[in-house]
Structure formats: C-alpha cells, structure tokens
Protein: DUF4446 domain-containing protein
Amino acid sequence: MFASIINFAIDNTFLTVLIFVAAFFITWIIYLQWQIWQLKKKLKLLFDGGKAQDLEGVIFEQIKRLRKTERGLKELNKFAEYLEKMALRSVQKVGVVRFNPFRETGSDQSFSIALLDPDDNGMTISGLFTREGTRLYVKPLANGQSKYPLSNEEKEAIETAEKNWKIKKQK
Structure:
C-alpha cells in the first residue's frame, strides 16, 4: 500500500506539489490565526478598564494618569519638605537623670529631663522630691545654655540627651 502511494506521487508530481503547498498554506493560516488571537488578548488587556476605544484614546488616558501621578508626587515632595522642617523644630534629644538631692528622703525619686531640638533649644524639667511634696522647675534653653543657673543633674541630663541623639543634623 505504501508503495502504491509513492508510485501515485511520482506519477502525479503536480498533484503532490499542490498537496504540499496546500498543507503549507493551511499551517501558515493556523499560525497567523494563533498570532491574531494572541494580539487580541494583548489589545484587550490594553483597552479594558479604560474609557477609550482606540489606541489614541488609550494614550491620552495614560497621559492624563501620568500627569495626575506627577501632581500627586509633587504634593508628596512638598509635604515631605514640610515634615523635614517641622522635624528640625521638634524635640529630638531627650535625656533623663534620676537622683536623690536630700539624704533624709528615700531613693532616687527626683529627676531632671532635658528636651532639645537639633539646635539644642528646648527646656529642662526638674522635679525635686521632699517629704512635703514634689516641686517642679522648668528652665528654657537656647543653644544648650540657660539664662538661669543649671544644676549638675540638669547639665547631666543635657549631656545624656546629646549622647542619645541618633539623627545628626544634615547640612
């Protein structure tokens, strides 16, 4: 049977070539249909979810979204700059010292707290514990100095605040 097919193909060369050409074109058409199907899938992803129905419309929609994103990014950058400026004016250095100023009272129930910004402006808060009660004293600081005399514990609290500071001022 195989021999008869070969003999038929040899005798009818034109018909054999025609069959091969037809098979080639059918394969080519199937391949092109598959390519079109893939392209339609990609275009559907591109056009779905948007208002635009053509490529130009899709491009304009993307440009609008890009401009909106750029405006949002500019606003975020402005807000970040504002936060950086606020951070430079906020308390960033904190130092706490507990101590016992009077021998007749119990343990270290008195304290000094230093609250400073990056430029060493701020205040010290000291609480002195006695048998009669606790007294609080607040002293303003400018560049780490006060116009009021600072106790040794308040100076130590300021030094502790400087040592504990993690973020150094960038210039």
